[in-house]
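Minutes, project huddle
Topic: does the predicted pose make sense with fe (ii) ion bound?
PN asked that the exact inputs be recorded in the minutes so nobody has to dig through chat later. Recorded below.
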Amino acid sequence: MTIPAGAAGARPAGARPADATAARGYRRAPEGTHPPLRFAAYRATGLRAPSLAPVVLRQRLTEITGPLLTGDIGPSDHDLTTQHAGEAIGQRIVVFGRVLDSDGRPVPETLVEVWQANSAGRYAHVRDSWPAPLDPNFTGGGRVVTDPAGHYSFTTIKPGAYPWGNHHNAWRPAHIHFSLFGRSFTQRLVTQMYFPDDPLFSQDPIYNSVPDANARGRMVATFDLDATCPERALAFRFDIVLRGRERTPFEEPHA
Ligand SMILES: [Fe+2]
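Predicted holo structure (C-alpha coordinates), as shared on screen:
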Protein backbone atom coordinates (compact mmCIF):
# COMPACT_ATOMS: atom_id res chain seq x y z
CA MET A 1 0.00 0.00 0.00
CA THR A 2 1.23 3.44 -0.81
CA ILE A 3 -0.08 6.85 0.09
CA PRO A 4 -1.12 8.66 -1.90
CA ALA A 5 -1.64 6.37 -4.75
CA GLY A 6 -2.83 8.49 -7.50
CA ALA A 7 -2.22 5.41 -8.37
CA ALA A 8 -4.50 3.83 -6.21
CA GLY A 9 -6.02 2.30 -9.24
CA ALA A 10 -6.54 -1.38 -9.17
CA ARG A 11 -3.78 -3.44 -10.70
CA PRO A 12 -4.20 -6.87 -12.14
CA ALA A 13 -3.76 -9.69 -9.70
CA GLY A 14 -0.18 -10.80 -9.72
CA ALA A 15 1.20 -7.59 -11.16
CA ARG A 16 4.48 -6.71 -9.52
CA PRO A 17 4.27 -3.53 -7.45
CA ALA A 18 7.85 -2.69 -8.34
CA ASP A 19 6.98 -2.59 -12.02
CA ALA A 20 4.03 -0.34 -11.38
CA THR A 21 6.19 1.96 -9.29
CA ALA A 22 8.85 2.19 -11.96
CA ALA A 23 6.25 2.91 -14.61
CA ARG A 24 5.08 5.92 -12.63
CA GLY A 25 8.62 7.18 -12.29
CA TYR A 26 8.75 7.00 -8.49
CA ARG A 27 12.05 6.26 -6.84
CA ARG A 28 11.95 3.09 -4.85
CA ALA A 29 13.16 2.88 -1.29
CA PRO A 30 16.56 1.18 -1.12
CA GLU A 31 16.82 -2.30 0.27
CA GLY A 32 16.89 -2.30 4.04
CA THR A 33 14.45 0.54 4.57
CA HIS A 34 11.58 -1.51 5.96
CA PRO A 35 11.68 -4.28 8.57
CA PRO A 36 10.98 -7.83 7.45
CA LEU A 37 7.70 -9.40 8.53
CA ARG A 38 9.66 -12.13 10.33
CA PHE A 39 12.63 -11.03 12.45
CA ALA A 40 14.00 -13.68 14.80
CA ALA A 41 15.12 -11.28 17.53
CA TYR A 42 11.58 -9.86 17.67
CA ARG A 43 9.94 -13.05 18.89
CA ALA A 44 6.29 -12.23 18.24
CA THR A 45 6.95 -11.99 14.51
CA GLY A 46 7.56 -15.73 14.52
CA LEU A 47 3.89 -16.22 15.41
CA ARG A 48 2.28 -13.60 13.24
CA ALA A 49 4.41 -13.43 10.11
CA PRO A 50 2.79 -15.29 7.20
CA SER A 51 4.32 -18.67 6.49
CA LEU A 52 2.94 -18.87 2.96
CA ALA A 53 3.27 -16.47 0.08
CA PRO A 54 0.48 -13.89 0.17
CA VAL A 55 -2.40 -14.14 -2.26
CA VAL A 56 -2.75 -10.93 -4.25
CA LEU A 57 -6.33 -9.70 -4.24
CA ARG A 58 -7.56 -7.36 -6.89
CA GLN A 59 -8.53 -4.02 -5.34
CA ARG A 60 -12.06 -3.09 -6.29
CA LEU A 61 -13.82 0.22 -6.32
CA THR A 62 -14.94 -0.07 -2.69
CA GLU A 63 -11.39 -0.40 -1.41
CA ILE A 64 -9.82 2.33 -3.50
CA THR A 65 -12.47 5.03 -3.32
CA GLY A 66 -13.56 5.13 0.28
CA PRO A 67 -14.36 5.73 2.97
CA LEU A 68 -12.47 8.98 3.29
CA LEU A 69 -11.16 8.58 6.83
CA THR A 70 -10.94 12.18 7.97
CA GLY A 71 -14.21 12.80 9.76
CA ASP A 72 -15.07 13.46 13.37
CA ILE A 73 -11.84 14.98 14.67
CA GLY A 74 -12.61 16.04 18.23
CA PRO A 75 -11.56 19.38 19.75
CA SER A 76 -8.98 17.70 22.03
CA ASP A 77 -7.79 15.03 19.65
CA HIS A 78 -4.64 17.03 18.84
CA ASP A 79 -3.82 17.66 22.51
CA LEU A 80 -3.47 14.48 24.58
CA THR A 81 -2.81 16.54 27.71
CA THR A 82 -6.28 18.11 27.77
CA GLN A 83 -8.55 15.14 27.17
CA HIS A 84 -9.51 14.79 30.84
CA ALA A 85 -10.46 17.02 33.76
CA GLY A 86 -6.97 17.25 35.25
CA GLU A 87 -3.41 17.73 34.04
CA ALA A 88 -1.63 14.76 32.58
CA ILE A 89 1.55 13.85 34.48
CA GLY A 90 4.94 14.05 32.83
CA GLN A 91 7.07 16.13 30.47
CA ARG A 92 4.79 18.03 28.11
CA ILE A 93 5.98 17.95 24.48
CA VAL A 94 4.86 19.07 21.04
CA VAL A 95 5.38 16.53 18.27
CA PHE A 96 5.03 18.07 14.85
CA GLY A 97 6.15 17.71 11.27
CA ARG A 98 5.04 17.27 7.70
CA VAL A 99 3.83 14.36 5.62
CA LEU A 100 5.72 14.45 2.33
CA ASP A 101 5.99 12.46 -0.86
CA SER A 102 9.25 11.43 -2.49
CA ASP A 103 9.79 14.84 -4.11
CA GLY A 104 9.23 16.76 -0.90
CA ARG A 105 5.71 17.74 -1.87
CA PRO A 106 3.22 18.02 1.00
CA VAL A 107 0.51 15.42 1.41
CA PRO A 108 -2.63 17.21 2.66
CA GLU A 109 -5.75 15.73 4.21
CA THR A 110 -4.00 12.67 5.57
CA LEU A 111 -5.38 11.31 8.83
CA VAL A 112 -2.49 10.98 11.30
CA GLU A 113 -3.26 8.95 14.43
CA VAL A 114 -0.96 8.35 17.40
CA TRP A 115 -1.04 6.09 20.43
CA GLN A 116 1.47 5.79 23.23
CA ALA A 117 2.24 4.84 26.82
CA ASN A 118 2.04 7.41 29.61
CA SER A 119 5.03 9.02 31.29
CA ALA A 120 5.55 5.91 33.43
CA GLY A 121 5.63 3.66 30.39
CA ARG A 122 2.17 2.14 30.82
CA TYR A 123 -0.63 1.97 28.28
CA ALA A 124 -4.22 2.64 29.29
CA HIS A 125 -5.15 -0.79 27.98
CA VAL A 126 -6.58 -3.90 29.58
CA ARG A 127 -3.66 -6.03 28.34
CA ASP A 128 -1.04 -3.81 29.98
CA SER A 129 -0.65 -4.74 33.64
CA TRP A 130 2.99 -4.23 34.53
CA PRO A 131 3.40 -2.41 37.88
CA ALA A 132 3.72 1.16 36.63
CA PRO A 133 1.04 3.70 37.53
CA LEU A 134 -1.83 4.61 35.26
CA ASP A 135 -2.56 8.29 34.82
CA PRO A 136 -6.30 9.02 35.07
CA ASN A 137 -5.73 12.17 33.04
CA PHE A 138 -3.94 10.55 30.14
CA THR A 139 -5.37 8.05 27.66
CA GLY A 140 -2.61 8.23 25.08
CA GLY A 141 -4.54 8.44 21.81
CA GLY A 142 -4.79 11.33 19.34
CA ARG A 143 -5.68 12.14 15.73
CA VAL A 144 -5.28 15.07 13.38
CA VAL A 145 -5.54 15.72 9.65
CA THR A 146 -2.65 17.30 7.74
CA ASP A 147 -3.21 20.85 6.51
CA PRO A 148 -2.73 21.97 2.86
CA ALA A 149 1.04 22.19 3.43
CA GLY A 150 1.18 18.69 4.92
CA HIS A 151 1.67 19.89 8.51
CA TYR A 152 0.46 18.04 11.57
CA SER A 153 1.02 18.75 15.28
CA PHE A 154 0.20 17.04 18.58
CA THR A 155 0.71 18.14 22.16
CA THR A 156 1.33 15.18 24.43
CA ILE A 157 3.44 13.77 27.27
CA LYS A 158 6.82 12.21 26.64
CA PRO A 159 6.21 8.45 27.02
CA GLY A 160 8.27 6.32 29.36
CA ALA A 161 10.13 3.13 28.52
CA TYR A 162 8.48 -0.16 29.39
CA PRO A 163 9.54 -3.80 29.77
CA TRP A 164 7.99 -6.25 27.32
CA GLY A 165 9.42 -9.69 27.93
CA ASN A 166 10.84 -10.28 24.47
CA HIS A 167 14.17 -11.32 25.99
CA HIS A 168 15.88 -10.99 29.36
CA ASN A 169 15.59 -7.43 30.66
CA ALA A 170 14.00 -6.19 27.43
CA TRP A 171 12.85 -2.55 27.45
CA ARG A 172 11.23 -0.64 24.64
CA PRO A 173 12.83 2.76 23.99
CA ALA A 174 10.39 5.64 24.46
CA HIS A 175 8.26 5.78 21.32
CA ILE A 176 5.01 7.00 19.83
CA HIS A 177 3.06 4.82 17.40
CA PHE A 178 1.91 6.52 14.19
CA SER A 179 -0.75 5.46 11.70
CA LEU A 180 -1.41 7.34 8.48
CA PHE A 181 -4.49 6.89 6.35
CA GLY A 182 -4.60 8.10 2.79
CA ARG A 183 -7.67 8.47 0.66
CA SER A 184 -9.06 5.01 1.02
CA PHE A 185 -9.31 2.13 3.42
CA THR A 186 -6.45 0.26 1.78
CA GLN A 187 -3.99 3.13 2.19
CA ARG A 188 -2.68 2.79 5.71
CA LEU A 189 0.92 3.04 6.88
CA VAL A 190 2.14 2.36 10.41
CA THR A 191 5.45 3.30 12.02
CA GLN A 192 7.00 4.33 15.34
CA MET A 193 8.68 7.58 16.29
CA TYR A 194 11.62 7.49 18.70
CA PHE A 195 13.42 10.18 20.67
CA PRO A 196 17.04 11.21 20.04
CA ASP A 197 19.90 9.59 21.94
CA ASP A 198 17.81 6.95 23.65
CA PRO A 199 20.16 4.59 25.54
CA LEU A 200 17.83 1.64 24.86
CA PHE A 201 18.21 1.57 21.07
CA SER A 202 21.02 -0.97 21.11
CA GLN A 203 18.94 -3.71 22.78
CA ASP A 204 15.60 -3.12 21.02
CA PRO A 205 14.88 -5.63 18.24
CA ILE A 206 11.93 -3.64 16.92
CA TYR A 207 14.07 -0.56 16.30
CA ASN A 208 16.89 -2.75 14.98
CA SER A 209 14.63 -4.78 12.69
CA VAL A 210 15.05 -1.96 10.17
CA PRO A 211 18.25 -3.14 8.48
CA ASP A 212 19.67 0.14 7.22
CA ALA A 213 21.16 2.53 9.80
CA ASN A 214 20.16 5.64 7.86
CA ALA A 215 16.60 4.37 7.61
CA ARG A 216 16.55 3.69 11.36
CA GLY A 217 17.61 7.28 11.88
CA ARG A 218 14.53 8.45 9.99
CA MET A 219 12.36 7.00 12.77
CA VAL A 220 14.06 9.27 15.32
CA ALA A 221 12.58 12.71 15.94
CA THR A 222 14.73 15.84 16.11
CA PHE A 223 14.68 18.13 19.13
CA ASP A 224 13.70 21.63 17.96
CA LEU A 225 14.48 24.39 20.44
CA ASP A 226 12.90 27.05 18.23
CA ALA A 227 9.58 25.21 18.26
CA THR A 228 9.39 24.76 22.02
CA CYS A 229 6.62 26.57 23.87
CA PRO A 230 8.37 28.63 26.57
CA GLU A 231 7.42 27.51 30.04
CA ARG A 232 5.03 25.01 28.53
CA ALA A 233 6.41 22.25 26.32
CA LEU A 234 9.53 20.94 24.57
CA ALA A 235 9.24 20.23 20.85
CA PHE A 236 10.27 17.39 18.55
CA ARG A 237 10.06 17.42 14.76
CA PHE A 238 9.16 14.22 12.95
CA ASP A 239 8.68 14.45 9.19
CA ILE A 240 7.17 11.40 7.52
CA VAL A 241 8.19 10.63 3.95
CA LEU A 242 5.89 8.19 2.20
CA ARG A 243 8.16 6.87 -0.52
CA GLY A 244 11.45 7.28 -2.33
CA ARG A 245 15.01 7.13 -1.07
CA GLU A 246 14.26 9.16 2.06
CA ARG A 247 11.25 7.09 2.94
CA THR A 248 10.27 6.57 6.55
CA PRO A 249 10.45 2.87 7.52
CA PHE A 250 7.01 1.33 7.88
CA GLU A 251 5.94 -1.85 9.61
CA GLU A 252 5.15 -3.80 6.45
CA PRO A 253 7.06 -3.95 3.20
CA HIS A 254 5.46 -1.69 0.62
CA ALA A 255 5.92 -1.08 -3.03
FE1 LIG B 1 4.45 0.65 22.07
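Observations noted during the meeting:
- The helical segments are 17-23, 45-48, 61-65, 205-208, 213-217.
- The pocket of fe (ii) ion is lined by residues 172, 175, 177 (CB under 6 Å).
No decisions taken; revisit at the next huddle.
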